[in-house]
Automatic annotation (TrEMBL):
The lineage of its organism: Eukaryota, Metazoa, Chordata, Craniata, Vertebrata. Gene3D superfamilies: MyTH4 domain. Belongs to the TRAFAC class myosin-kinesin ATPase superfamily. Myosin family. Keywords: Actin-binding, Cytoplasm, Repeat. This is Unconventional myosin-XV. It is found in: Cytoplasm. Residues 58-211 form the MyTH4 domain. InterPro entries: Band_41_domain, FERM_2, FERM_central, FERM_domain, MyTH4_dom, MyTH4_dom_sf, Unconventional_Myosin_ATPase. Residues 217-518 form the FERM domain. SUPFAM superfamilies: Second domain of FERM (SSF47031). Its main location: cytoplasm. GO terms for molecular function: actin binding.
Amino acid sequence: QSSVPSLTSEPNSTMLVPAGDHYTMMDFATAYFREAQSMQGLKGTSSEKKSAASLVQHTKVPIQESLLRYSDNELNELATKNFKTVMRFMGDQAKLKNQNEVECIYEILQLCKEKETLHDEVYCQVIKQVTHNLNQESVLRGWLLLNLLTGYFLPSNILMPYVTKFLQLASGDPSSTHHDIAKICQSNLRKNFMYGGRRHLPFPVELEALLKGRGARRLTILMPGGVEYLTRIKTFTVGKELLQEICEQMGAGEPEEIEEFVLFAIRNDSNNLGKPIRSEEYLHDYLLEDKLVTVTVRRLIWRTPLHFENKIYTDVHYGQVLWDYLNGRILLSYSEEMKMQVGVLAMLQHCAKIEQQNSAPSREELKEYTPKSLQSSISPQALQSHVGMLLRTRQALQPMDAKIQFIEHVMKLPFFGYNTYVVERVSDGTISVPCFFGVNKEEIIVVDGITQAVSCVIPLKELQNMRTLRPISDGGLPGIELNYGSAVSPKTMWLELSQAKEMYHTIVVILEKTERHH
């Protein structure tokens, strides 16, 4: 056990930001360092102050025992070994044969991942080695380590205020070479405290970039409608920060509206399965080394009224609504009324194209303007004459106005706003399969695959809990178990579908966003 209690599993309620002259690292060393215990006889003398200060200052000699007292010999040995690794990485000791800088960092981070009781020790070692260190290159390396430590691992509740104070002092000195990175460390620690730190250790390629001074990685976000948004994300950027940046670029900067969008990480494989990135999740935890992940953004909730004063905003909403309409994300069933709607929406799509202002659409174009699920039910001839008539008798529309009218028309369709999934099996024998499950901000609905009648409604506020289920057999489909209803009348339903994980995580994100809204 450490003399400094490690973090308990209980989350902290408040992060202490110290004021005044208290909580310096020297105060901490005097109270908790192993060596300070043996200097008790010098109490109050100037030599005691000098000795106490030396405890938290750079040394060229490896430590022989851990800085903090551990009764466990293994921890003591791991601590002294780690100090040598820190020295090798910072250039204060020669590296081992065939050992490179990236391996040094991994060794330190891996130790912290495996031994939570050593978090405080490692923090103290790195802070000691960047304090009063005259070698600028070595100092820079030490701060790079602190940058990673603060984003991945929290110090204990006892050490936290001292580390916070140390970073506060370092970032408050504009003349120092490390005041910018100290500010980044402060931000990392705050995020770590609030969101729990990054889950996966960095890939070598990310560490190599950091060592070359590249602290940000280029990322292309695929927006609806094929718009690409180029940005740079840092080592510890969370979903919330990126989403806010994208929404502000679109002119949707109000917190209530930002909450209605979500980032998706989509695997670029045969399944194209996506998972929503929650606001407190670190983007790098989703970005694989092999670049097999695309990050997209979608509007998930439609509560805030739309406003079309920004061109990017209009294009993004048009792109999403159009794709959903044409590709079966919005459930449509054939009727005479729907046939008329398809004509109006085809005309609006045609007017939305700048280059098509004065021409009538070809048969090929009209097929592109028709939802896949209705192409076999609607006669191309009838559609062509209907659209032709609409174009002749209506006032000419500017492309932006056509896009806005298209969005407003589609929003009136009965199943607009539901995230739709095809379900192959359901435990409820009264529901014929395959069927559709739709999820919106209020409820889960079950829709008949042929008639599109709604056979079951589960209000989200009645959802007690849910879990994902593994496929029962090889080649089988994954599933979800839903527990809902009241304490008096509990109900359970399980369903099987290829997009089980995406549906599960989408419901989780909607519940979280709705809770924050209330």
